[in-house]
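User: Could you write out the 3D structure of this protein bound to adenosine-5'-triphosphate? I've included everything you need below.
Assistant: Certainly. Input first, then the structure.
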Amino acid sequence: MLEVSALSHFYGKHRALADVALGTTQGEIVAILGANGAGKSTLLKSIAGLVKPAPGAILRFDGQDIGALPAHLIVERGIALVPEGRGVFGELTVAENLQLGAYPARARQGEADRLAGILKLFPRLSERMSQAVRTMSGGEQQMVAIGRALMSNPLLLLLDEPSLGLSPLLSREVFRALGQIRAGGVGVLLVEQNARASLDIADRVYLIESGRNVGSGSAHDMKNNPDIQRAYLGKARTASTSRS
Ligand code: ATP
């Protein structure tokens, strides 16, 4: 579905991404793990058309080149970003935020059914349709942000740190929803600081360090890899090397 290669991005002279490559297919969850500043947000923004890749990058979606498209036309192709910090409109109600997500032409058909599906995914939103979003909890706002992105009728959802700042309970609710979104046939490309939850839900994982690919594999293999456990899951070395 999405094919990215030779993707580099510079902020001035600082190279935030260096020849990154990745791919996603329909109906799978792909997680990107990496330390702070590794370039994960820049990667999602590049795919969404919010930052311009350096020349030579290849970004294809459903076999079509999207590398030169502006952000709103990338949404029309079926890629929706839930940005870090959510980007919801606090003064608007839940209903108004969701409606804004249906602005793209691809979203017009089946809008009512899509809204019903989102309210089924996040039942607590249906009780809060007329509430101003700024008065909601972080987790509820994240549900609005994901719901708004889903209103655009995406084939691929990009999520930047969806569990950041959420209680464990609401994080679980958000991750559960991602599983349901995948079951509905939508692809998910996920950047998360919660490596454990990402590895639990993802099908495949890419590791990014200092803007470069440093590994990839199935989430199952990654979870059982001692190097990954030490680096991302905070597991100590084997008992024989730990202090007694
Ligand atoms: P985090 O997990 O902390 O959000 P990240 O992996 O998402 O980090 P990015 O936000 O993509 O990383 O940043 C990659 C690098 O680019 C960092 O060194 C960051 O300081 C730098 N950077 C990001 N945005 C800008 C910007 N607008 N101007 C200059 N440098 C930037």
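Residues 11, 14, 16, 34, 36-42 surround adenosine-5'-triphosphate (CB under 6 Å).
User: Perfect, thank you.
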